[in-house]
């Protein structure tokens, strides 16, 4: 079974779930983990990076919840703003509704991984045995080293780092994933060189296939996994087995 471990859906023309489900079918992917999208228009990323545009800071968790109810092949990850005074309370409510983990976005919400508010959320995820997933924020307090320190601080919580860290190659992320039992790397947008070297260093058990839809096409990201020199068991782990374990789907 192939599972896209990281995609974004939103009530937009480019991120609608109906379109994503069609793409999944075309790509031969059985299940997917969806996160609230649309807070940043990925088609205009340079305008957000330059400060010309501001993100929509309200996560569309309700949209993700409706998508999961209507499509059994989809699994939802909640998103909360760690700077919200009610962040932990909101996450607790979302997990009770059936969300499978927490996505945080340092590009949208101005928090840092060492913040105590982030610590509260990480602890809560450990208590519920659900993972935290995030990308780098490319600023002090929101880079690979900061995320790794958070994973070290909460060894009972599983952490997933999108895009295998900072693009195009993040040796620090690979080294940390090889060392820490609770740190996993998601493959979307990563370079083939980094992907091949990381799997060799960490083993297939620490790597999760993801697409970062709608920014990338699942079939394109999937092709990189099939080009890797892997055994059938290693490829099965990356394409679905590892995320099944993290989300306790078995």
UniProtKB/TrEMBL annotation:
InterPro entries: ACMSD, Amidohydro-rel, Metal_Hydrolase
Record's protein name: Amidohydrolase family protein
UniProt GO MF annotations: carboxy-lyase activity; hydrolase activity
Protein keywords: Hydrolase, Lyase
Keyword Transmembrane helix set for record: no
Gene3D superfamilies according to UniProt: Metal-dependent hydrolases (3.20.20.140)
One Pfam family, short name: Amidohydro_2
Keyword Lyase: yes
Signal sequence segment: none
Amidohydrolase-related domain mapped to chain residues: 3-249
